[in-house]
Amino acid sequence: MLEFFATLHWGAVIQIIVIDILLGGDNAVVIALACRDLPSQQRMRGILWGTAGAIALRVVLIAFAVVLLNVPFLKFTGGLLLLWIGVRLLAPSHLEHANVKPADKLIGAIKTIIVADAVMSLDNVVAIAGAAEAADPRHRIALVIFGLMVSIPLIVWGSQLVLKLLDRYPVIVTLGAALLGWIAGGLIINDPAGDRWPLLDTPLAEYGMCVAGAVFVVALGSWLRRRNARRGEAQGPQSH
Fold this sequence. Notes:
The protein is mainly α. The chain has one domain (about 1-230). The protein is about 80% helix and about 0% strand. The protein is built from ten helices and no strands. The protein has helices at about 1-5, 10-25, 25-35, 40-70, 75-90, 105-120, 120-130, 140-170, 170-190, 205-240. Helix 2 crosses helix 9 (about 170-190). Keywords: Membrane, Transmembrane, Transmembrane helix. InterPro entries: Integral_membrane_TerC (IPR005496), Integral_membrane_YjbE (IPR022301).
């Protein structure tokens, strides 16, 4: 255990925690919706067991993702997906939670949380698998579990505080989107299919690609956010 913490890649841990907090807001909404009709004495149990099931399922999904990233072109594909996730973080689409029905039974609420989290956690899975790439291969799964164990409770019990901080300091979202772009750039250039091009296998090329990914996400996401805001303003007067 001491050796694990001594050799732990703390940069990757921080990235995983930041990713989960930024991308986990909808998961907190799902938990609240699923448990809202439970008797008050069962709500905490529903939250605890539903969250535990969601964490276990996500660890399994991420474990598969970490292994699969060694297959040629999957890192490249995951990197492209992560670029889009970062852009969407800055310019979110209107997410609907109407299909998440409140449950009046404890087991039903737990199942709702686990199933909905599995459906919604693709972005988290790809992003966390990418962040874990920087760590020692022997510690990647343990690192993922450690990061999730720290971040999920923050989302569940501190979601309101996190949302207020994100609203008050929008730069946090921008920095988080840039982080996703940075990780995406690293995934793309480190794809096993690129091993045949020695020019790409240099620290300078990797750093440049990471920077390019971060700049791309922030630039495109900011432009889409401004465009969506202009469209909203144009449609506002027409709706009255």
